[in-house]
Write a structure and sequence with these properties.
The complex is a heterodimer of chains A (237) and B (589). Among the domains of chain A are: 12-66, no CATH class; 77-174, Alpha-Beta Plaits, CATH 3.30.70. Helix content of chain A is 28%, strand content 9%. Chain A has helices at residues 12-16, 18-37, 93-97, 134-138, 165-168, 180-183, 191-200, 210-213, 220-229, and strands at residues 77-78, 103-109, 117-125, 144-145, 162-163. The radius of gyration of chain B is 31 Å and the shape is elongated. Chain B folds into three domains: 37-118, Ubiquitin-like (UB roll), CATH 3.10.20.740; 127-141 and 158-302, Alpha-Beta Plaits; 310-534, Rossmann fold (3-Layer(aba) Sandwich). The chains are: A alpha+beta (237), B alpha/beta (589).
């Protein structure tokens, strides 16, 4: 029983009937006007919305999102270094530890870089991924992260869920103090750029911080635009 | 009392000789040296060093520079141990010190452990920890020993010494001078085994590095071995570099097909791709070396493979199932055999089992009395390993021909016979020919049945092309030029529709009406091996002696029963004797 009904006799006001009718219409009008004029609180932060006037809690998914906790493991990304090349050195540690065996790597050789090895192919089958995050932990170079805060975008084809290195390489670039391309220089990085990179470089963090947890700047709209740019349609054919 | 004679003073005793070293104890086991290593009594031949003596009782003494087939440098200092006969109680290098009668060796004391840790710290001081890009990750003793003996973080608070990161020494070898720990194994190998002293150490102290002489590349034909013996990742192979991780690969005990020496190899593979050959120890054949050409000879196992049966030449070729192709081939061959215009071309690259069945079909199914010998053209030769004859099984072919009463005729006579019209049909077991130009004559044939590994000049002219599986995909035996039969084992199941030569020949025989049936290469040997066994005294088909255990992942006995790809774990334990894969089959199928 949702609430108690006292089995008591109606009092005089209830027996007069009309005052109660007017009161009921009043309640109705109050809710109508409140929803009509103070429809939805616009604060994008769902949990911080002011509900004093607005009662509407609807989430306009996917434009609006419930923020995930900081440790949420979203879609993978390959972290670029500042000259656009991936930090990945194709060491296969992520592919080795992956329990779902969803990572496929082929290594190639760079002729002009202190890091000779880079992935010519780096493919993740997001449908096989079990989102365990082992690949992120295994990576010795902080080259793969799951900090995008996003699910894999929906699609009607399985092939669209197989992400290659071009789609995975996104997000803000990262460099550390002892990265070989900073210490030794690389012919792909101009000298003034290198000096700037050296000035901004931080030590390699051994402790997980919030910075690793989620990187802002990803949105479904951007993902949809990317998909459109690739000529991939989400509509069923 | 003056006359009292004193007792004569005792003649001064002859001065005692200074106490010399105590006489060595009589040997406990005459003819051998007996000592104690970590409390265990060890009996070894005189002259055995401490490392080997300890190994014989299962005590591991770590080392980098010691190699049992090279001279002793004792410069890595990793094998220092406590020995009871050491002057001043110093720690002595176990690789250099022969054991003496009655001594005590301790390898687990605090002093020894401390020096091991200190040695590793010293070796890792300037070593770049770039295991992530190093091709030797998984086979590196620095990694192994760090985990076993050190496990301390670096105390270096200044930049590491920078040296050449990517120095191509020669066509086979790339050197990373930073990773080198100067054990000089490669230098000693080139001087003592390859007999071409092309490597040396330049500069001094922590500026030292391995290099060749100015302008002279490391171009010895045995340079690939320095990659194998390098205990760290300093020397890497240009061929394998970055192509695959060794910990994904499995190894099969195989035999190199580069020449008729038949060097014992490990064939490292992942899924259905062969990645490299490594020499496998066999004192009688190749010790533990192999030449560069042999090392690179695996490439035909991967490229341009024939994977389905074809009928018809050139554009008219269409693929069809193997039994239908065999029927078509048998019909054409039978017709040509009846007309006396049929020749068989056997390749000495095929294994003994292949040739046994092929000879059976040629003799009983087609009624031939002579076969032509194909095979690869001759190459270079030296007085160490490489033989000019680049066919691994020429002696095997001779034995089989002898056993079946087939006369062998040289390939050079086949071309003129085709030109003259005496031969109108050829059955080629293996399409390697010594003279590729002569293959043009085969275009004139009415019927050319080829069992081929790869698409090549001869396979292009085939009227019926049957896909053959090379030695990586089959079991079998090669007989090397000395008459030594050597077994190789299947690494992975045949690719696509390929089948070993013996299976293709047996299919032809079935189409020709022969009653022989074979289930496996082992079955072939059981049925037909007796005909050549007299020439191979003491050979047992199931004997594939294990010489070495592979470090790394512990092999899963039952292989792929966990559903993983075969490359992820050892499918066959390397120390298994006999054909354990037959037992595996019962588990997995």
């Amino acid at each position: 029983m949702p609430y108690r009904l006292d089995d008591t006799a109606a009092d005089l006001r209830e027996r007069l009937y009309f005052p109660e009718v007017i009161r009921g219409v009043g309640i109705l009008m109050k809710q109508f006007l409140r929803n009509f004029f103070f429809g939805r609180e616009k604060n994008p932060d769902m949990l911080a919305r002011d509900r004093s006037l607005s009662q509407n809690a609807t989430l306009q998914y996917p434009e609006e999102r419930v923020p995930y906790p900081p440790g949420y493991r979203g879609l993978h990304r390959l972290v670029p270094r500042e000259d656009g090349r991936p930090r990945c050195v194709a060491c296969y540690m992520c592919a080795t530890i992956c329990p779902a065996q969803c990572i496929y790597i082929e290594a190639g050789e760079l002729p002009d870089d202190p890091i000779e090895k880079y992935p010519t192919k780096f493919v993740i089958d997001e449908l096989r991924c079990v989102v365990c995050g082992f690949c992120v932990e295994a990576c010795p170079k902080d080259a793969i992260r799951m900090d995008s805060g996003e699910h894999a975008p929906p699609s009607y084809t399985r092939a669209a869920q197989i992400w290659d290195e071009k789609r995975l390489l996104r997000g803000p670039p990262v460099s550390y103090q002892y990265d070989p391309w900073l210490r030794r220089g690389a012919s792909s990085i101009p000298a003034e750029k290198l000096a700037e990179m050296k000035a901004n470089a931080k030590p390699f963090s051994t402790v997980a911080t919030d910075e690793y947890a989620q990187t802002p700047g990803f949105s479904v709209k951007n993902l949809a635009a990317e998909a459109k740019a690739r000529g991939e349609t989400l509509a069923r054919k | 009392m003056a006359d009292e004679t004193k007792p004569p003073a005792p003649a001064t005793a002859a001065p005692k000789p200074p106490p010399g070293p105590p006489a060595p104890p009589p040997p406990k086991n005459p003819g051998f040296v007996t000592c104690t290593i970590d409390g265990r009594e060890v009996v070894v031949k005189p002259g055995t060093n401490v490392v080997e003596a300890a190994k014989s009782v299962g005590v591991e003494i770590p080392y980098y520079c010691y190699h049992k087939r090279l001279s002793i440098a004792a410069n890595c200092r990793m094998c220092l141990v406590e020995m009871s006969n050491a002057p001043g109680g110093k720690l002595m290098p176990g690789c250099q010190m022969p054991v003496a009668e009655g001594i005590t060796v301790k390898t687990e004391t605090a002093r020894v452990k401390d020096q091991q840790r200190a040695t590793l710290e010293f070796l890792l001081l300037n070593h770049p920890v770039d295991c992530a890009i190093c091709d030797q990750a998984g086979e590196c003793k620095l990694q192994d020993y760090y985990m076993k003996y050190d496990q301390k973080p670096s105390r270096l608070d200044m930049p590491k010494v920078e040296k050449g990161k990517r120095v191509p020494l020669g066509p086979m070898v790339v050197l990373d001078q930073e990773r080198c720990i100067l054990c000089t194994r490669c230098v000693r190998f080139m001087r003592e085994v390859a007999k071409k002293p092309q490597l040396g150490v330049d500069e001094r102290g922590n500026e030292s590095f391995i290099t060749t002489f100015d302008g002279q590349p490391l171009d010895s034909k045995y340079s690939g071995n320095v990659v194998d013996i390098c205990p760290v990742g300093a020397l890497t192979s240009t061929d394998l570099r970055f192509r695959g991780r060794v910990w994904f690969m499995s190894s099969a005990r195989s035999v190199c097909t580069g020449c008729s020496r038949g060097c014992n190899t490990f064939l490292d593979y992942l899924k259905e791709t062969t990645f490299r050959y490594r020499p496998r120890e066999n004192e009688a054949v190749n010790q533990e070396w192999m030449c560069d050409d042999g090392r690179l000879s695996y490439k035909y196992l991967n490229s341009e493979r024939v994977l389905t049966a074809f009928q018809g030449r050139g554009a008219a070729a269409r693929d069809l199932p193997l039994p239908a192709a065999a029927e078509a081939a048998a019909g054409a061959l039978r017709k040509a055999a009846a007309g006396g215009a049929l020749a068989a071309l056997f390749s000495p690259v095929a294994s003994l089992e292949d040739l046994l069945v092929a000879a059976l079909v040629a003799k009983e199914g087609l009624g031939l009395s002579e076969v032509y010998v194909g095979g690869r053209p001759d190459g270079w030769q030296d007085d160490f390993l490489k033989r000019a004859d680049e066919n691994p099984n020429r002696r095997g072919l001779e034995l089989v021909a002898q056993a079946f009463g087939l006369a062998l005729k040289p390939f050079a006579e086949l071309g003129p016979a085709i030109e003259a019209g005496r031969v109108k049909a050829v059955w080629a077991v293996g399409t390697e020919v010594p003279d590729p130009a002569a293959a043009a004559a085969f275009a004139r044939l009415e019927t050319l049945v080829c069992q081929a590994y790869n698409h090549g000049p001869l396979a292009r002219e085939a009227t019926v092309l049957l896909p053959a599986a090379p030695h990586s995909e089959a079991d079998g035996t090669y007989v090397n030029f000395e008459g030594r039969p050597q077994r190789f084992e299947l690494a992975y199941w045949p690719r696509g529709g390929a089948r070993p030569h013996w299976a293709l020949a047996a299919e032809l025989g079935r189409a020709l009406g022969l009653a022989w049936r074979f289930q496996s290469a082992r079955g072939v040997w059981d049925e037909l091996g007796a005909r050549v066994a007299g020439s191979l005294p003491g050979f047992e088909w199931d004997s594939l002696p294990s010489t070495q255990k592979r470090r790394g992942l512990v092999p899963l006995a039952a292989g792929t029963v966990d559903g993983r790809l075969p490359g992820y774990r050892e499918r066959v334990p390397t120390d298994a004797v006999g054909d354990t894969r037959m037992d595996l089959l019962k588990v997995t199928r």
